[in-house]
Amino acid sequence: MRVYLGLVAKQPGAGIPEAMLHTVRDAIDSAFPVPPEVIRSREWHRPGITMFAWTNEPDDSRRPPLLETGHDRVTGVNGYLAAPDDVNRLAAMPALDTEAVGGCFSAFRATEDELSAATAIHRVCPVYYAETPDVHVIGSRALLVHLAGGGERVEWDVLALQSMVRQGYFLSDETPYRGVSALPPSSSVTVKGGRRTVTTTPLPSAVPAPTSRREKKELVGELASALLATVEPLRAAGEPVNLALTGGRDSRLIAATLHAAGIPLRATTNGLDTHPDVIIAGRVARALRVEHTVIPPARAEKKDAIVVEHPLARAYETLRACEGMTSAYESIVGYLPYSAKPTMSGQSGEILRAGGLLLLQTDLTEKALRRRVDVTFLRDPALFTEEANEHARELAGPWRERAPLEALDHMYIAYKVGRWHAGARAGSLRRGDQIWPFLDNRVVRAALGLDQTWRLSEEVIYELLGVLAPSLRDIPVEGKPWRFSVGRRYYPWQRRPQVLTAPKTGGGGWNWRTSPGEELTGLIRDHVLGRLDLLAPIVRPDEVRKLFAEPVLKKPNQAWHLYTVATMLGGEYPGKEPQGLPRVHIPIPS
């Protein structure tokens, strides 16, 4: 994981105050969610401009380097480039622009008279910016950008947190920190001559769905080429890629991409030998002639309860890793020492299927799609104050004016990927920088250019398999059949796509976060109700009390969101990690 922060004085000829430099150096321990002893740093100083960089990478072997320096400039890449030498392209650009560069990254650059940063098309590697009376601040961690201002304590943007309580992530460019904004997707922020400029390139509009086999082949071929380019950095890994392989669509497509690129891989699947994930993954591995390891679930004596960490310990670690951008309802990958071992999964493959917001829809009429836009921004309006609801309506306004199919597609990229996933993946980035083919800048751009209904049909992924590894198309998928195959007429000589489904079991879907039991419910209730005065600007106290009226939570995800925000506003974060908290017993339903 890499962290960047740039400072530039507003007044020409003015320097960066020495006290601010010391504040930044002291603040990194709070803003970088790894043990302080593993952090390495570099600095670049010119009159009136400074660039800081930190990493928990154990050495300088990863390319590009933490800071790529030239005679009059310095460039840093947060994330990875498909071609590491592209850092020189970014350094040489007259205006920082990520559109033609492959990888999953954001870029930071300082010259003798300019500070700039840019996001890729999905901003999953985020950029944040703020200003003080004397200095502009740009960085990759929002808390660090906020603390660089030198305030004695964190100032929260309480109204912005209404989105966190509704959805568990931000549906805007706001952050929890007053005065700190997230840079939009496919954007750059530049400070020169004391003035800040933000430039945004609109996300691509989709072309109509192809009407001929030739046109379909051409569009799929372009996307396949973009996918193949994403895995090029893995040629230098020196060992096979470990792929988490399931019976679904997305990890299979990653396996096909690696196979077509000639990148060695081995597959790992978690589950019992009788589960469709294991059966199908085994068939995929045999078709590609790669090693396949099955990790069965741990067997134990029958128990009537599980023991989990105290919710405050969980919330603190989530806030520390995700900076208040992700709810403690989510399970965030914990810290482990940085490893360069290449690992991959099919995560974020929904982008090639028109995004999670559209995948939730069965009714694709304009009225139903517009209702989805509204519900996304204005969930549970009765719980919120009128001020909070009005703020949500203002955020929804620009999206309501757009064609709803494209709006939901782009909302998924801008918010679900660019805000929720950007926050949540900070936990895993501490362990190493994985290659994410479905989050590659050029792959996402190519995918967004394809008709949403065509992507939603899943035919795009099916056709990609035919280009990259044809033998995988006829292996069944787990769960539900390919969407394009439902109701489709097949001639006798055509092969119908197959599906395998796991048998339903009584307790198979139980999750302690959504079935918290009375003890955990009580802890969450007491924590939230004890801070109702802090939450009152965005939620109605009487409605919150109704939420906790039952012995066991009826809306546990909403309660976790409230708990997360209450922890921020209550002052438990940032600060020292809570100690001595008892663990919690949660009964397992029979």
- Rg to the nearest angstrom? 24 Å
Which parts are unreliable, with pLDDT below 50 for 5 consecutive residues or more? none
Neighbour order of strands in the largest sheet: 2-3-1-9-8-10
Total count of helical runs of at least 4 residues:
20
Number of strands: 20
What structural class is derived from the secondary structure elements?
Answer: alpha+beta
Shape: globular
Biggest sheet descriptor: 6 strands, antiparallel
> How much of the sequence is in beta strands?
15-25%
Which helices and strands, and how do they pair?
Blueprint: E1 2-9, H1 18-31, E2 40-46, E3 49-55, E4 68-69, E5 73-81, H2 86-92, E6 103-111, E7 114-119, E8 128-131, E9 135-139, H3 142-147, H4 162-167, E10 181-182, E11 187-192, E12 195-200, H5 213-230, E13 241-244, H6 250-261, E14 265-270, H7 276-288, E15 292-295, E16 305-308, H8 311-322, E17 343-344, H9 356-359, H10 366-377, H11 386-400, H12 404-424, H13 426-429, H14 441-448, H15 452-456, H16 459-468, E18 477-478, E19 499-500, H17 517-529, H18 532-535, H19 541-547, H20 556-569, E20 584-587
Parallel strand pairs: 13-14, 13-17, 14-15, 18-19
Antiparallel strand pairs: 1-3, 1-9, 2-3, 4-5, 5-6, 6-7, 7-11, 8-9, 8-10, 11-12, 16-20
Overview of this structure, please?
- With about 600 residues, this protein is of the alpha+beta class.
- Helices cover about 35% and strands about 15% of the residues.
- The protein has helices at about 20-30, 85-90, 140-145, 160-165, 215-230, 250-260, 275-290, 310-320, 355-360, 365-375, 385-400, 405-425, 425-430, 440-450, 450-455, 460-470, 515-530, 530-535, 540-545, 555-570, and strands at about 1-10, 40-45, 50-55, 70, 75-80, 105-110, 115-120, 130, 135-140, 180, 185-190, 195-200, 240-245, 265-270, 290-295, 305-310, 345, 475-480, 500, 585.
- β4 (about 70) and β5 (about 75-80) form a beta hairpin.
- α5 packs across α16 (about 460-470), α10 runs antiparallel to α11 and α17 crosses α20.
- The mean pLDDT is about 90.
- InterPro entries: Asn_synthase, Ntn_hydrolases_N, Rossmann-like_a/b/a_fold.
- This is Asparagine synthase-related protein.
